[in-house]
Sequence to fold (286 residues):
Amino acid sequence: MARRGGSAGRSGRGGPADRSRGGASGRPGRGGSERPGPGLLEERVVGGLHPVRELLRSEQHLTRILVATNRDPAAVLDEILALAAERDVPIDRVERAALDQRSEGLVHQGVLALAPPYPHVSLDEVLERITARSEPALLVALDGVTDPHNLGSIARTAEAVGAHALLVPERRSAGVTPTAEKSAAGALAHLPVVEVTNLVRTLAQLHERGVWSLGLDGDAEGELGDHPLVTEPCVLVIGAEGGGLSRLVRERCDAVVRLPMVGRVASLNASVAAGVALYELLRHRR
Fold:
C-alpha cells in the first residue's frame, strides 16, 4: 500500500471548482466483497463487547441484545446491560451455541446485538454537517479495499482522529459487515459511512465543493507531510493492498503522495498506512 517510490505524483489541479461530472449516491448498495445477500438484509448482527457498547451509545436503533448464559462478568458487560435498560432494548439470555450459530463464526465474546441494516448516509448530509461545524473537511475514501478487517481498522482510526465520514464504493469493495464492525471496535457506530456508485465522480463532486483529494501511493514523488493541502479540506484516498490506487482514481486525485519509508520493508498494510497518514493529517491540523 505505501511503498518506496519514485514515479511522479501530482500537486494539484486548478482550484476546487473546475471539474464535476455528476454526483455520488449515498444509497445502500448490493455489490462488493463480503456484502450480505438480499436474504440477510432484514437483520444486522453486531458482535463483541465494544462494538455492542458503542452501538448502544450511538443513536442507531437496536432490536435486541443476546447475552450468553455462561458469559463471565465484566465492567463492559455491566455497561451494556445498563445502556440497554436505559434505551429499553430487550435482553435475552441464551446458550452460547445459539450465539455461535447466529454469528456464523464471528468472535462475539458472548454478546450480540441485533439491529436493522446499517444506516448509510448521503454525501450531501455529510457535507452539510461539516459546514454546520465550521471545520475543514476530513474524509477517507477506499478504492478497491476488499478486506473487511482493513475497512474496520481504517474506520477505527478515522473515527479516532475525528474524520467526518468514510466513503466506500458500492461494488468491488468491502462493506459494513459483522467482521468489519468487529474490527472497528465500535467506531462504525459513530463514523458516518457513504456508499458511492462511482468513486471517480465522487472525487470530482468533492473537488467542485472545495474538498481536495489526496491519494496515498508509494510510488509518488512527494511525501504527505510536505504537501500544502494537508491543512485544507480534503479526502484521503486509500488504495487496495498490493494493487494500490486504480488508474482512474489516481488520475482524478488532486495530489498523489507517499509516506516516508527508510527501512527494508517495501510496503505497509492498507490499514496501517491509512492510520499513519491520518495521524499525519491530524498533526498538521492541530
